[in-house]
């Protein structure tokens, strides 16, 4: 855990909210809001990985760093792998954090603790989860659930990820938060793998890692940051950030 690199993948191709990374949130583009949260986390250098000159310009306008990547990447993980190779070809950064560019309400402290499970050498990928408290989220396919074993206070070992309501029976359910901290070699291994059967079925790329035998542990956080995918999400993000 000596030297993390935080990368924020961002592209302009969202269909439900055109030009999403540049959407204004109380006077700043959303991608800048996310960049500021990553900087505030204070765990390592931060850069935005994108295929858009407009996004590069927005980030550089506030003194941030952005790197242009190919436009044909299938996932954010592929994009950050290219960016990591460009920014750090010698592999000095042993951890690469993938912070989604549409999480403007994420707490900087959550970004900071996302790497904590990697203190255990058996863990190859670390992520975040929060207990589901809204009843309608328990059955919503849009809410990805982490099924796992609590191995210490505030930390779970992931056994599965699903859009279904799981596990069955009494007890808490956990909402997976899509922030990933990869060991550098784990990221290289992950992007070299073909999409897996369960990944294609659930439409969840983290299942590719589990199906290949990689270990993912999650740090439990108190609140779920809401991703921005629709105009309504954007309204909620503006209201949430205006309140702070």
Characterization of this structure:
It is a single chain. It contains eight helices and eleven strands. The protein is an alpha/beta fold. The protein folds into two domains: 1-103, Alpha-Beta Complex (Spore Coat Polysaccharide Biosynthesis Protein SpsA, Chain A); 107-177 and 185-224, Spore Coat Polysaccharide Biosynthesis Protein SpsA, Chain A (Alpha-Beta Complex). The strands form two sheets. The chain has a five-stranded mixed beta barrel with strand order 7-10-8-9-11. Strands 2-3 form a two-stranded antiparallel sheet. The two termini are 31 Å apart.
Please describe the structure with a list of short key phrases separated by commas or semicolons:
244 residues, alpha/beta, Spore Coat Polysaccharide Biosynthesis Protein SpsA, Chain A, two-stranded antiparallel sheet
Q: Note the gap between the termini.
A: 31 Å
Low-confidence stretches: none
Strand order of the largest sheet: 7-10-8-9-11
Residue share in helix: 25-40%
Provide the CATH architecture of the largest domain.
Alpha-Beta Complex
Please name the fourth-level CATH homologous superfamily of the largest domain: Spore Coat Polysaccharide Biosynthesis Protein SpsA, Chain A
Radius of gyration: 17 Å
> Would you report the number of β strands?
11
- The helix tally amounts to 8
CATH C-level of the largest domain: Alpha Beta
Task: Tell me the major beta sheet.
Answer: 5 strands, mixed, barrel
The tally of structural domains comes to: 2
CATH topology of the largest domain: Spore Coat Polysaccharide Biosynthesis Protein SpsA, Chain A
Q: What is the molecular shape?
A: globular
Category from helices, strands and their pairing: alpha/beta
- On the 0 to 100 scale, the average pLDDT is 94
DSSP strand content: 25-35%
Q: How do the helices and strands follow one another from N- to C-terminus?
A: EEEHEHEHEHEEEEHHHEH
């Amino acid at each position: 855990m000596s030297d993390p690199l935080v990368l924020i993948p961002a592209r302009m191709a969202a269909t439900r909210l055109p030009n999403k990374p540049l959407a204004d949130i109380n006077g700043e583009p959303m991608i800048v809001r996310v960049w500021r949260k990553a900087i505030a986390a204070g765990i390592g250098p931060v850069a935005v990985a994108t295929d858009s000159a407009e996004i590069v310009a927005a980030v550089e306008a506030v003194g941030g760093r952005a790197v242009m990547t190919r436009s044909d990447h299938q996932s954010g993980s592929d994009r950050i792998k290219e960016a990591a190779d460009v920014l750090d070809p010698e592999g000095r950064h042993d951890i690469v954090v993938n912070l989604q560019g549409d999480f403007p309400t994420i707490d900087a402290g959550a970004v900071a603790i996302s790497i904590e499970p990697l203190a255990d050498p058996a863990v190859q990928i670390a992520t975040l989860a929060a207990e589901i408290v809204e009843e309608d989220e328990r059955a919503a396919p849009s809410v990805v659930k982490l099924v796992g074993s609590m191995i210490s206070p505030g930390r779970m070992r992931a056994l599965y990820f699903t859009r279904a309501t799981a596990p069955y029976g009494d007890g808490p359910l956990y909402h997976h938060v899509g922030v990933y901290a990869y060991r550098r070699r784990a990221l290289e291994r992950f992007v070299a793998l073909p999409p897996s059967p369960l990944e294609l079925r659930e439409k969840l790329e983290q299942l590719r890692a589990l199906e290949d035998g990689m270990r993912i542990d999650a740090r439990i956080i108190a609140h779920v940051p809401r991703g921005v995918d629709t105009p309504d999400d954007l309204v909620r993000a503006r209201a949430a950030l205006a309140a702070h």
